[in-house]
């Protein structure tokens, strides 16, 4: 099964129902159970931060942060991942200035993942496969 790492922008656009077509296709495939979407812990932290700042345009404005996290937790579409020792070793090798971008990029392992779903130039400039548009 193909595995993709979901960056904050992709998760936010998913919640806003405004994913670009290529990324939306991958989410649809994952919703069918034919791909796996991996959400790093740092992405959850960033998502909560932007929710609290009011920077998301979610169609159901009455939904709370807690409800969003509960929905993500029970959705079979997503799995949550943490930095292990190997990821921290990759983290030290990357030349990505932003902490959260470097953490997301460090989780990418070419043997196990297809790409990171992001529009982040710093991650793609680090020669890590990214899908957007």
CATH architecture: 3-Layer(aba) Sandwich
Roughly how many Å apart are the termini?
Answer: 22 Å
Number of E-state strands: 5
Main sheet specs: 5 strands, parallel
Could you name the CATH class? Answer: Alpha Beta
Mean pLDDT: 91
Strand fraction equals 15-25%
Low-confidence stretches: none
Instruction: Give the fraction of residues assigned to helices.
Output: 40-55%
H/E element order: EHHEHHEHHEHE
Query: How many discrete domains?
Result: 1
Strand order of the largest sheet: 3-2-1-4-5
Which structural class do you get from the secondary structure elements? alpha/beta
User: What is the radius of gyration?
Assistant: 14 Å
Describe the structure.
The chain is an alpha/beta fold. It has one domain (2-131): 3-Layer(aba) Sandwich (Rossmann fold). It is built from seven helices and five strands. A five-stranded parallel beta sheet has the order 3-2-1-4-5.
Q: What is the strand and helix layout of this fold?
A:
Elements (H helix, E strand, L loop, with lengths): L1 E5 L1 H8 L5 H11 L3 E6 H12 L12 H10 L3 E4 L3 H9 L5 H8 L8 E3 L3 H5 L4 E2 L2
